[in-house]
């Protein structure tokens, strides 16, 4: 039993920082992220028998973390703006897209945290966690087109926030 506890501790040390960062990006709250992280590790260790080894342990754990974080946010009444599936999604770049701004990573991270919850979650899952829109739709219980539109809207809103921050700093 002592060996199990040591192995669990080693896994925790190996994955906790990255998983905590994922939790913070989704929940936008460090205390809630800590709770989600702890619950996720407890859940993973309890359900270790169900880990089949088809994906890396980190991927399996990350899925648990992401699901737990999203469930917590949903409890706070996640407000994803619904779209019907007939809405066309246009993947062309926005004509007003401005590429001449240069931002520091810290500025972008801070501004991402200012996005509305639904936008922030889709943007984080897509850009930072590497999920595709089909996976995001499944995880969040929304349609793929809603995920795409939320992502598109989040990029536009993020540009607005960054531009405003740049003007306020200047």
Order of helices and strands: HHHHHHH
**Unreliable stretches covering 5 or more consecutive residues:** 83-100
CATH T-level topology of the largest domain: Rna Polymerase Sigma Factor, Chain: A
Count of all domains: 2
What is the level-2 CATH architecture name of the largest domain? Orthogonal Bundle
The CATH superfamily of the largest domain appears as: RNA polymerase sigma factor, region 2, helix turn helix motif
Overall geometry: globular
Gyration radius, to the nearest Å? 18 Å
Strand content: under 5%
Alpha carbon gap, first and last residue: 59 Å
Helix content: 55-70%
CATH top level of the largest domain? Mainly Alpha
Number of strands: 0
On the 0-100 scale, what is the average pLDDT? Answer: 83
Q: State the major sheet.
A: none
Total helical segments: 7
Broad structural category: mainly alpha
Helix/strand layout:
Layout (H helix, E strand, L loop, with lengths): L1 H26 L2 H17 L10 H19 L29 H8 L4 H12 L4 H8 L3 H26 L1
Helix pairs in contact: 1-2, 1-3, 1-5, 2-3, 4-7, 5-7, 6-7
């Amino acid at each position: 039993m002592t060996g199990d506890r040591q192995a669990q501790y080693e896994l925790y040390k190996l994955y906790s920082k990255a998983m905590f960062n994922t939790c913070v990006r989704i929940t936008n709250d460090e205390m809630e992220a800590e709770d989600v992280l702890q619950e996720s590790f407890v859940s993973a260790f309890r359900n270790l028998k169900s880990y089949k080894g088809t994906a890396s342990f980190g991927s399996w754990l990350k899925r648990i973390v992401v699901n737990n974080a999203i469930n917590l946010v949903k409890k706070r009444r996640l407000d994803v703006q619904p779209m019907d599936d007939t809405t066309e999604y246009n993947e062309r770049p926005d004509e007003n897209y401005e590429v001449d701004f240069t931002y520091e990573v810290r500025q972008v991270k801070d501004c991402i945290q200012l996005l509305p919850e639904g936008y922030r979650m889709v943007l984080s899952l897509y850009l930072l966690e590497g999920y595709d829109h089909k996976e995001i739709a499944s995880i969040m219980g929304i349609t793929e087109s809603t995920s795409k539109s939320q992502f598109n809207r989040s990029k536009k809103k993020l540009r607005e926030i960054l531009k405003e921050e740049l003007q306020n700093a200047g």
